[in-house]
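To the structural biology subgroup,

Please find below the input and predicted structure for GTPase Obg, which we are adding to the shared reference set this quarter. The sequence is reproduced verbatim from the submission form. If anyone notices a discrepancy with their own records, reply to this email rather than editing the shared folder directly, so we keep one authoritative version.
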Amino acid sequence: MFIDLAKIYVKSGNGGNGAIAFRREKYAPLGGPDGGDGGNGGSVIIQADRNLNTLLDFTYRKKYVAANGEDGSGSKCFGKKGEDLYIKVPMGTIIRDAETNKIMKDLSKDGDSYIVAKGGKGGKGNYHFATPTRQAPSFAEPGMPGEERSVLLEIKLIADVGLIGFPNVGKSTLLSMVSKAKPKIANYHFTTLKPNLGVVKIEGAPSFVMADIPGLIEGASEGVGLGFDFLRHIERTRLLIHVVDISGVEGRNPIEDFIKINEELKNYSEKLSQRPQIVVANKSDMLYEEEVFDKFKDAVNKMGYDSVFRISAATREGVDELIKEAARVLSTIPEKELEIAPEELFIEEEKKFTYEISVEEGIYTITGSFVDRLLASVNVNDPDSLRYFHKVLKNKGIMDELIGLGIQDGDIVRLNDFEFEFLL
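Predicted structure (tokenized):
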């Protein structure tokens, strides 16, 4: 089953806590602190794998959590780093932030990877906090929490040539004739409900990948029919082969069909509509009036498309010439990365520990992530630790901010469940 969209939740590992420990050797009864650092948490990494072609696995498993880092221990022993979690996806997968829908990374090549959630940093052990005046710190840093977010995975097929056109014009038949692909073929609309890929090999020229894109219809660029589901799959192609049914057996006008499909391309993406096209008048074996092709070719030429082929995919008439021309045109078009507009890119916000100060009934309350981390790292019942606590508040500028707000000696300062009297 071909699944090309998925939403998953990822969480990196938390960093391990720094250790509070002291040397206890026989001949050093008053040895200094030697608590080791905690290990970093494991990261969640999404990686492209050429052996995959669908996001089917993500319909069954939607939550991915990396391992936490281990806590530090005595003798300055560091905690073990949490193991990174690798998530394999097909080449051509785009990663989007689910909240903003911005693009985080385009994994277009085998082995391309992106750290979608970075592991939390391990906390420092208490030996880092020893100073000449604080020789036995009884506090250490806690590990940093891991990142968590929901991401969207979206496949945009990697193919050199895309076959486009209305349903039932013979795109699948053409692909089956020029490659080993075995798409489902039948004489009714929307036989193809998923994109099919095939490798086309031609003597004297490099092989190329051709994609049979499910039939477009009028309004596809607005999501009608298969619309958005498959228009994105031709965004990477360097060359489009536009197939029309020249026979008219279904009562369709090939010129009108050609115009409508190109209008859908333009409505979806101006750049996509300017992609080089080879125009193919298919089912010529069922054509009873020869002038129909001549009129079609003249009309297409006037629109600026010079390369027009008359073929019958079913009988292979004209197919070899078409493929040779496709190979020739491809040789003149350089490969390039998927173009992503700057406004579509996801910008990672710098993570900062923040706080807010509010005043109510003479109590100055400080809240925020900075407060949570500070309280987790100190022992407020230990004099040395408490002095470190006040030093951090001063260095952060909180003391000066409190003075600016008019705090007086004896006023209460509250940080979560901890309170103290303010003294200048």
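Summary notes: The chain has three domains: 5-155, 161-331, 356-421. The two ends are 70 Å apart (CA to CA).

Regards,
Lab coordination
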